[in-house]
Amino acid sequence: MLIDSHCHLDRLVDNDQPGALQPVLDAAKARGVEKFLCVSVSEKGYERMKNLAMPHPEVVISCGVHPLDIKDGFDPAWLAREAADEKVVAIGETGLDYYYSQDNVKDQQAAFSNHIELANRLNKPVIIHTRDAREDTLGIWRESQGNAGVLHCFTESWEMARDALDLGLYISISGIVTFRNAEALRDVVRKVPMDRLLVETDSPYLAPVPYRGKTNQPAYVHEVAQFVADLKQVRYEELLNQTAENFFRLFPAAR
Ligand code: NI
Fold first, then answer.
1. 94 CA to middle of ligand 1, Å?
2. Which of 53, 126, 131, 211 is most buried, with most CB under 10 Å away?
3. How far, rounded to the nearest angstrom, does the alpha carbon of residue 158 sit from its chain's CA centroid?
4. How far is the CA of 166 from the centre of ligand 1 (A)?
5. DSSP β-ladder status, 126-131 and 197-199
6. CA 145 / ligand 1 centre spacing (Å)
7. How many domains does the chain have?
8. How many angstroms is it from 157 CA to the middle of ligand 1?
9. Helix (H) or strand (E) holding 162
10. How far, in Å, from the CA of 8 to the mean position of ligand 1?
11. Ligand 1 center to residue 3 CA distance, Å?
């Protein structure tokens, strides 16, 4: 089964009507995509995202506030309330981004810890965004005794991947892997064990080759999966079976 393990469907449509996502989902289904994990980034956008996802049983959602969105406010009580809903299969995306934001590092760290602790209480996995914050990301994960999670849209070094794998984390690969200058990332993908890999689009961002520069969409997870299958030197079907098995092991409530 082909799954887009990380997309922002609400950012792909302007209108708020129930069914607004249908054309996006149809385009993806035409390429074989059967399941979508629609990932929350802010409290402000959450209600709309949830409402858009609601009519579609093949779309599951997460709840959380992205490290670059906590400047607009982060309310742990709100998160705890919303995240407890059974439609919410994961907590996030949360994490640390020191590349784009260094002036609120302490706030990012506090919010990340809060997400992890809540995930532990609710027994839900965590979707982690990390950029230029390798040591602190894994340090806080250890301190907060993170249980299950994924480093999404992975672009870091093999050393970080290896340490994350040792902590039981999964590694999710986006269309960045198809970019010409991503040789280091391709090396990481070759080394990550098959049973710890996921594929994603992170749409509407980061469209894979040959759509680079265009608006990304879940349909293009096909290109990511094909590219990763080639790197791993396995058949496309095998890659789909293995990444789907991994996805449901990590996100059991998404079944
Ligand atoms: Ni994302």
1. 10
2. 126
3. 19
4. 23
5. unpaired
6. 23
7. 1
8. 19
9. helix 158-166
10. 7
11. 15
- Reported pTM: 0.97
3-state SS, residue 19: coil
**Given phi > 0 = left and psi -120 to 50 = alpha, else beta, which region is 247?**
alpha
| 126: nearest Cα among 156, 94, 161 | 94
CATH number of the domain encompassing residue 44: 3.20.20.140
List of residues 6+ apart from 85 with CB closer than 8 A: 63
H or E, element range at 96: strand 88-97
**pLDDT in 10s for each residue of the chain, 255 residues:** 999 999 999 999 999 999 999 999 999 999 999 999 999 999 999 999 999 999 999 999 999 999 999 998 899 999 999 999 999 999 999 999 999 999 999 999 999 999 999 999 999 999 999 999 999 999 999 999 999 999 999 999 999 999 999 999 999 999 999 999 999 999 999 999 999 999 999 999 999 999 999 999 999 999 999 999 999 999 999 999 999 999 999 999 999
C-alpha 231 to ligand 1 mean position (Å): 23
Distance 201 CA to ligand 1 centre (A): 9
Q: Is 61 helix (H, G, I), strand (E, B) or coil?
A: strand
Edge-to-edge strand list for the sheet holding 88-97 = 2-7, 33-38, 59-63, 88-97, 126-131, 149-151, 170-173, 197-199
CA of 127 to the centre of ligand 1 (A): 9
